[in-house]
Amino acid sequence: MKLVVQRVSDASVEVEGEIVGKIKEGLMVLVGFGVDDTTREADYLAKKLVKLRIFPDENGRMNRSVMDIGGKLLLVPQFTLYASTKKNRPSFHKALNPDIATELFDYFTDQCKQHVDVETGEFGAFMKVNLLNNGPVTILLEKEF
User: Fold this and answer.
1) Catalytic amino acids?
2) In the predicted model, what is the mean pLDDT of residues 33-54?
């Protein structure tokens, strides 16, 4: 499981001309699942994500989490995080089957919702993602077992 985490001032996801998810201050997160991923990785990374201290404290140091600031998450499913680029045309054989990945994305979303407000993109849809990266701060989180 891979997460590309971006600290944002504003972010939204549009599908077919409609905004399906929108947040102000918080984290916009691209979420990808690999063939071996299970709820174990989702549980681990959900806890890690909401506790990740990448927002500034009163001294300007990255010392506060999205929970600490009362921010939100915008979770966007992104199977292309598992692209293999050995050849010029990417292959996605390392990405989890879409049916299982959809269930795991929903599970991951529910785990995050236990701690913060969550908006999402739409699994399997062509999405337009807009964001204002604050910092910029972009961090890659992966399972670490």
Assistant:
1) 78-80
2) 96
Q: In sequence order, what are the beta bridge partners of 2?
A: 32, 142
Tokens of 12: 């939204």
Token code pair at residue 52: 């990740």
User: From CA 101, how far away is CA 79, in angstroms rounded?
Assistant: 9
Q: In 12-132, which ranges are continuous DSSP H helix? A: 39-51, 66-69, 98-113
- The model's pTM is 0.95
- Where are any strands of DSSP class E within 37-92? 55-56, 62-64, 72-77
For 1, 56, 88, 102, the CA distances from 62, given in Å and listed in that order, are: 24, 4, 38, 32
What six digits make up the tokens of 141? Answer: 């989180």
C-alpha of 82 from chain center: 14
Beta bridge partners of 6: 28, 138
